[in-house]
Amino acid sequence: MTAKNGHITMLHGAGGTVMHELVKNYIVKYFGGASNIDVPLEALDDAAVVGDVVLKSDSHAVKPIFFPGGDIGRLAVSGTVNDIAVLGAEPYALTCGFVLEEGLAVTDFERILVSMRETCNEAGVNIVTGDTKVVEKGSLGGCIINTSGIGRRTKALEKNLTVVKQFRSNFEVRWILDSNLKAGDKILLSGTIGDHGLAVLSAQEGLSFGSEIKSDVKPLNRLIQRLLSDVGGIVAMKDPTRGGLADALNEFSEKSRVGILIQEDKIPIRADVRAACEMLGLDPFEVGNEGKIIIGVVKEKAKEILELLKTTKEGKEAEIIGEATADFKGVAMQTVVGGKRIIARPVGDPVPRIC
């Protein structure tokens, strides 16, 4: 799908096929091909790797800037931290660029700053430099935040890779990447899907779903390091943000060149989120999340990873949802009625400006 009449549309920032085509056909075209980069731009993983340093940059334009369960500041810190962490690295320093709209209440700005500081404390990271700009009233919806971060290799990552090599002797990859899955690997999901997207949508539209749906936004780096260190065997990880579970699984499948079969009855979805999606005609598989991870792990360690996840606050609703297979390409779901449904990569996240 190309830009309508040669112009950027909202879909170009919504995850899914339209955004991926924009990135591949334009951004990678001009910036790809850098030499001596361990995980380069064209790999399109959640972060890049230069030597043993992991780099990530994120811009956040969520609307509204405060929503049930979170705010743009907590989202900015968590998003960058999690994208570094899913490669197996420990994030430790962030930059922060504020673009503030004229008329933003100083009390709201301070509320965002307090939230960012608290989230940094949760993650064990520091904001060390940045920039501030102000633009005319009516152009942003409050503010936009860019956070960039750096991360480093850890003993937990090395321990994890040693475990992987016990079951996959030819595994020479030094990082946890989307392209690492092999047939037989199990796919785990750390918790319920759709919470963040529905929470933001309720704030955007003033909707009430008869219950309090809150965003799941949180930093996951400490949980991830524990999984790597205490169990190991993890080969791929991703946080299913824009485009949701459907987009993330299709990225795994495309980059690893394997099929993925998931089980419908194993996908954790809150009853109120499911009901709200049905009422609005949304597919919860395509709705973005900000506090969940999808994990690809060698089958021999899957149950141990699940058991550890379930002992944590972040992973108490985790499930083994499927496995990688050589029987077909793409992503399919075994339904509760006995058939199979193709889980295609979405055109884009159905909820605009969720991050």
What this model shows, in words?
- The protein folds into 2 domains: 44-152, 60s Ribosomal Protein L30, Chain: A (2-Layer Sandwich), CATH 3.30.1330.10; 156-342, PurM-like C-terminal domain (Phosphoribosyl-aminoimidazole Synthetase, Chain A, domain 2, Alpha-Beta Complex).
- The protein contains 9 helices and 14 strands.
- It is globular.
- It has 355 residues and is α+β, with helices and mostly antiparallel strands.
- Strands 9-11-8-12-10-13-14 form a 7-stranded mixed sheet. It has a 5-stranded mixed sheet with strand order 1-2-7-5-6, with helices on one face. The protein has a two-stranded antiparallel ribbon with strand order 3-4.
- Helix content is 32%, strand content 23%.
Record the SSE blueprint.
Blueprint (H helix, E strand, L loop, with lengths): L15 H16 L16 E3 L2 E8 L5 E2 L2 E2 H14 L4 E12 L4 H18 L2 E10 L7 E10 L2 H13 L18 E4 L5 H11 L15 H10 L3 E5 L5 H13 L2 E5 L7 H10 L13 E4 L4 H9 L8 E7 L4 E5 L5 E3 L13
Parallel strand pairs: 5-6, 10-13
Antiparallel strand pairs: 1-2, 2-7, 3-4, 5-7, 8-11, 8-12, 9-11, 10-12, 13-14
